[in-house]
Specification:
Helix content: 40-55%
Number of domains: 4
Strand order of the largest sheet: 10-22-21-20-11-18-19
Shape: elongated
Number of strands: 22
Strand content: 15-25%
Structural class: alpha+beta
Bound molecules: adenosine-5'-diphosphate, magnesium ion
Length: 615
């Protein structure tokens, strides 16, 4: 409990004791008012004060006003204990609310635990703890077993296992050794490792995740916006209705004024909209928190809401459904030696971040002497063009060869062919093959089971490779040989094809598909493999690149929305029923208070379930 919450609790206890004491004195008239004024002041002064302050600021209608009006009205009509009780229960409800919000904040904050406190660097043979923000790219940091890896980097020495569960929800630790990439936020488990830092702290994985999570609650779902608008109209309507209820029946029937004022006050107490106002955002907050615990970062309530209506899921191939780690399976050179062909290809690719490029430079294995590269250019969806040792080298697919007017020959090997041309002459090709992720087929099946009506794969790769992959995974439709712009066109066609209520999800790694990620209704990016551009353009980020998380995310979003709907129906239902009873004179002030606080408490407990949806 925070200090403020403790103070409220103390006020509740003091006021309850004073109320009980006051009931022991059978006073009448002003004496009675005096003994009840004490517990009323203890519990209600801040509500009254806020109501007055809001009126001065011209924002009359809020729950403070409702409560102040109802209780002052009750005091004026001589219902002293009731007035105190209404305030008392209102404050109990508020306290409960603020504890619930605090709890879900904390659950998201437990994700914040990934924030590293320090990084060890070696100085004169001593380990010095340094602020991660002060570490520069290229520095060597030392991570002891049990410590958090503070920055992204590459292991230069040592062997260990890393617990990535805080980031990905994945419970099996990852083995790391010399040359492995490590990301900040993981726990180094078994051995001492040295890491060469590759990104400053501000751009590290941890910093990015924390940014995303902190900004997530600012993007409101439609349901949230609806509720806050609703409350703005609702409260004045209720106050006017209460006034009418107090004045019209006695004027028409000449009946008992105090009886109708009493009913109007009950009406006011019941109609406080707190249950809705708090529980709807809390549910979304919880859903986002629950999703992030399983390694799914949702950038806002609006995206969580949209995911529930997913109808078409479109995948990129490389890096999304496949591992994006290619092996060179064949090398066919024409006039030059095979090793020269690989060397040229690796040099040409050395500036590219495409998975193909990484695999070729890895297959080459030797260090790249950057001085030999005069220029280098990436041609999205086609390949690369570079000047190496003064010769123009192009490496890429048939499209690229056609473009530069080089005749090429197809290869009988299955896999992706990377053709190489030197100074406009065909030099040969490498065949590389990618593996389908173990979880991809299950991911597609899970989506089908969730009622997704269509799955589509878009790829820049060849027809054979593309159709082969799609066939193995059970994907409904496949479009191959697409340039990035072509992918956008295909997505636009699919957007027209889907129903008005349905949403189109695009899942990619951001390499050659960042434009599509932003064009789709919901863009999902692979966080670990994916480029920074993808993480920025996407609405949802999967921390560990497991495509099964897509169905999981849809599941969490649907359950969150179900909770939201339950709360709206339940709260409005109970309130309406008690309102009717109150207007008919069949509910008293006590029942009204219990109905109001009770509904709030139940709605909040229900909303908190959203946090546990990851399990
Ligand atoms: P996907 O849509 O499957 O993710 P991309 O759009 O990234 O594939 O790439 C499409 C095709 O373009 C690749 O299959 C490859 O033939 C070619 N290509 C793209 N980038 C490169 C590169 N850096 N080197 C060689 N070929 C490339
Ligand atoms: Mg790709």
């Amino acid at each position: 409990m925070t200090g403020k919450q403790k103070k409220t609790l103390i006020r509740i206890i003091v006021s309850a004791v004073l109320l009980a004491a006051a009931r022991l004195f059978p006073f009448e008239g002003w004496k009675s008012l005096a003994v009840y004024a004490a517990p009323y002041a203890v519990i209600g002064w801040d509500v009254l004060w806020r109501a007055v302050r809001n009126i001065i600021h011209g924002q009359v209608f809020d729950e403070n006003f409702l409560m102040a009006l109802a209780t002052v009205g009750a005091l004026a009509t001589g219902e002293y204990p009731e007035a105190v009780a209404v305030m008392l229960f209102y404050q109990i409800g508020e306290l409960f609310q603020s504890c619930a919000v605090g709890k879900s904040r904390k659950s998201i904050a437990s994700l914040m635990d990934i924030r590293p406190d320090y990084a060890n660097i070696e100085k004169d043979g001593q380990l010095v703890q340094t602020d991660p923000e002060e570490i520069a790219v290229g520095d060597i940091i030392i991570v002891k077993p049990g410590e958090k890896i503070p920055l992204d980097g590459i292991v230069t020495e040592g062997k260990s296992t890393a617990d990535t569960s805080a980031l990905t929800g994945e419970s099996v630790p990852k083995t790391i050794y010399e040359g492995s990439d490590v990301i900040s936020g993981c726990i180094n488990q078994s051995g001492l490792i040295k890491v060469r830092v590759t990104k400053p702290f501000g751009e590290s994985t941890v910093a990015k995740i924390l940014d995303l999570v902190e900004n997530a609650s600012s993007k409101k779902a439609r349901a949230e916006n609806f509720i806050s608008k609703f409350a703005r109209v609702y409260t004045p309507v209720v106050v006017i209705a209460a006034l009418l209820l107090a004045a019209v029946p006695p004027l028409i029937t000449g009946g008992n004024w105090s009886e109708w004022i009493h009913r109007a006050l009950i009406f006011l107490v019941i109609s406080c909209p707190c249950a809705l106002v708090i529980s709807v955002p809390l549910s979304f907050f919880g859903g986002i928190g629950g999703a992030s615990r399983s390694g799914i970062l949702v950038k806002g309530g609006n995206y969580l809401e949209a995911l529930a209506a997913a109808e078409i899921v479109v995948f990129d191939k490389t890096g999304t459904l496949t591992k994006g780690v290619f092996n060179v399976t064949a090398v066919h050179s024409d006039d030059i030696s095979e090793s020269r062909l690989i060397e040229l290809a690796a040099y040409a690719e050395s500036y590219s971040v495409h998975p193909i490029a990484k695999s070729i430079t890895e297959a080459y294995g030797k260090d790249i002497d950057r001085d030999r590269i005069a220029s280098s250019q990436e041609l999205s969806g086609k390949g690369v063009k570079a000047v190496i040792d003064g010769a123009e080298v192009c490496a890429g697919n048939g499209k690229l060869m056609d473009e530069i007017g080089v005749s090429w020959r197809p290869c009988h090997h299955t896999g992706t062919t990377v053709h190489v041309a030197v100074d406009g002459e065909y030099a040969g090709h490498l065949v590389i093959s990618d593996e389908i992720k173990e979880t991809s087929a299950q991911a597609v099946a899970d989506l089908k089971a969730k009622g997704i009506s269509k799955t589509v794969m878009l790829t820049g790769d060849s027809k054979e490779t593309g159709e082969d992959t799609a066939g193995k995974l059970g994907i409904d439709q496949v479009c191959t040989q697409l340039l990035p712009a072509g992918k956008v066109e295909e997505v636009e066609k699919l957007l027209k094809e889907k129903s008005a209520k349905g949403r189109l999800v695009f899942v990619g790694d951001g390499i050659n598909d960042a434009p599509v990620l932003s064009r789709a209704d919901i863009g999902i990016a692979m966080g670990a493999m994916g480029s920074d551009a993808a993480i920025e353009a996407a609405d949802v980020v999967l921390m560990d690149d497991d495509p099964r998380k897509i169905a999981k995310a849809i599941d969490i979003s649907r359950k969150t929305l179900r909770i939201v709907r339950q709360n709206i129906v339940f709260a409005l239902g109970v309130k309406l029923a008690v309102l009717l009873l109150g207007a008919l004179g069949m509910a008293n002030m006590w029942e009204a208070v219990f109905a109001d606080v009770g509904v709030s408490v139940i709605a909040i407990i229900n909303a908190m379930r959203a946090m546990k949806l990851s399990k």
